[in-house]
Amino acid sequence: MATEPKKIIIDTDPGIDDAMAIFLALRSPEVEVIGLTTIYGNVYTTLATRNALHLLEVAGRTDIPVAEGSHVTLTKGTKLRIADFVHGADGLGNQNFPPPNGKPIEESAVDFLVNQAKANPGKITVVALGPLTNIALAVQKDPDFAKNIGQIVLLGGSFAVNGNVNPAAEANIFGDPDAADVVFTSGADILAVGINITHQVVLSGSDREKLASSKGKFAQYLTGILEVYYSYHCDAYNINGVYLHDPTTLLAAVDPSLVTCTEGAVRVQTSGITRGLTILYNKKKRFEEVTEWSNMPSVKVAVTVDAPRVVKLVMDRLLS
């Protein structure tokens, strides 16, 4: 008997690799995208919404609603770090696309998340590709959200490797550490895909040439926007390739067998030189005293990835 596709909401800050992940989701029969919610990160929230609407127009999927998310962090911080030096000033490789025709829905991202989870308890997976502000606000707004939501698959954390904002912190967690801590301790079913995993998944220069020579609509579009992303990776990491952060996370939601996980409690450092640091407590030792770690719910953290299979899926689905 054919299983119904998994309903997913993508919380996104597009972003070049977000564009790849959104297109991948639309090309994956295993999932049904029921909405995009937007957040700051690679770009400010207003531009994230514009880019999300634009990407759905490119894909011919303007039937999918876009709900605009928070413009500020959980603690109302507005000095947001935007990664325009990675993704271009427009977030999509400085291609200066015309503005989209569509508009976001009236409902806010937080209300959309809460209401969809309530209407489909246990059936919805949120794929969170940016800072976790919208998800944390949903947890705070609705005491039942953490148990109504089926799963949260998030790109975040560096888990025992160096971060990519500074040695301690990965960009999405650093974008709103307070929100990340709320989400990790919420009791929801969570799979965290950190850069310890995504830095193993590289789209090479020759993969890029294959995309460029394909006549496929998505391949052609991505070839245009990837230029900026490749040159950033060459400067920052001295590689001829790009890390597939968002596509890997999206595919882990589509096919959980692509990663293996460990489980434990995760807490996030919210201040000081290690702000944004994610620490996994494996619960192997029982500590005597009661602390901020005691009785915290466990989450899953990816520890290995089948990188060749991820890259093959990305190429197979985006070449068409």
Automatic annotation (TrEMBL):
Keyword Ligase tagged: no
Pfam families registered for this protein in UniProt: IU_nuc_hydro
Predominant subcellular localization, coarse grouping: cytoplasm
Keywords, comma-separated and alphabetical: Cytoplasm, Glycosidase, Hydrolase
EC nos: 3.2.2.2, 3.2.2.3
GO molecular-function terms, A-Z: inosine nucleosidase activity; protein heterodimerization activity; uridine nucleosidase activity
Catalytic reaction equation(s): uridine + H2O = D-ribose + uracil; inosine + H2O = hypoxanthine + D-ribose; xanthosine + H2O = D-ribose + xanthine
Span of domain Inosine/uridine-preferring nucleoside hydrolase: 8-311
SUPFAM superfamilies assigned: Nucleoside hydrolase (SSF53590)
Gene Ontology terms describing biological process: purine nucleoside catabolic process; ribonucleoside catabolic process
InterPro entries hit by this protein: Inosine/uridine_hydrolase_dom, IUNH, Ribo_hydro-like
EC top class named in words: hydrolase
Location of the protein in the cell: Cytoplasm
Transmembrane segments: none
Cellular component GO terms held in the UniProt record: cytosol
Family the entry assigns: Belongs to the IUNH family.
This protein's name: Inosine nucleosidase
